[in-house]
Design goal:
single chain; 155 residues; mainly alpha; 4 helices; 0% strand; elongated
């Protein structure tokens, strides 16, 4: 920027980070909410924690659901502050949301499903198809989000 000061650049970088963080929290909250609502409540495929009683599974689902809402509400507060300061960068927020949602889904698929064995996507004889679809979709969301964040970094 011609005539921009170091302070201007610092403010711009900070706004960029805040937009990305708002997006990450929004994506994380949205993907967690969809996972909990669709796979836990509607389809009854699993609970957040399936290695104990149904009651423990329901409690773990409630905690997971609260987590998704806390992330979403935090994202909305950040977006409100960005809007107030006239610093909202929609593409940066979308990139953050895709990256946050993809990262959460990939973490869920690899760490919670496979490494820790807290639950599976679905309890069927051949879960491989579900695992591949889940993790490939997560990776696509993550990569698209990261590319969008990289492209909007300087904007």
């Amino acid at each position: 920027m011609v005539g921009s000061t170091g302070t201007d650049r610092a403010v711009t970088r900070r706004a960029g980070r805040r937009n990305a963080l708002a997006g990450v929290l929004l994506g994380l909250g949205a993907v967690a909410f969809v996972d909990e609502t669709v796979f836990h409540q509607l389809l009854h495929w699993h609970h957040f924690y399936d290695r104990a009683s149904s009651a423990a599974g329901l409690v773990s689902d409630g905690i997971f659901h609260a987590f998704s809402w806390f992330a979403t509400v935090a994202a909305l507060f950040l977006l409100a502050a960005l809007r107030r300061d006239r610093e909202v960068r929609p593409l940066r927020v979308v990139g953050g949301a895709l990256a946050g949602g993809g990262a959460f889904q990939l973490y869920d698929g690899l760490v919670q499903h496979k490494l820790l064995g807290l639950h599976q996507i679905r309890y069927v004889p051949d879960v491989l198809v579900y695992d591949v679809v889940w993790n490939v979709l997560a990776a696509v969301l993550l990569v698209v989000g990261l590319v969008l964040l990289a492209r909007t970094r300087r904007a």
